[in-house]
Amino acid sequence: MYINFWYPTVFSTELQDTPVKVRILKQDLVVFRDSAGRAHCLSDTCIHRGGSLSGGKINGDCVQCPYHGWEYDGDGCVQRIPSLGPNPKIPSRTRIDAYPVEERYGIVFAFLGDLPEEERPPIMEIPTWGKAGWRESFLQYDAAINYERSLENGLDPAHNEFVHPTHGFSGENSEYKVNNLRMVDEDNPWGFGFFSKFKSPQAKDSTMAKFKQASDNREAGSGNTGPNHLWTIIRFSETAEFGQYMYEAPVDEGNTRIFLVNMRNMMIEPEKDEEVNARNWTIIKQDIKVLTELNPVITPPTNTKEFMVPADKVILIYRELLKEWNERGWRLDVEAINRVGSRVAFAIPSPSRRKQKGWVLDSVPLIESPIKSAHESLPLHKVNAG
Question: Which residues of the chain form beta strands (DSSP E)?
Answer without folding.
Answer: 5-11, 20-24, 27-33, 39-43, 57-59, 62-64, 71-72, 78-80, 98-99, 101-104, 107-112, 135-143, 182-184, 191-200, 215-225, 229-235, 241-252, 255-264, 346-347, 362-363
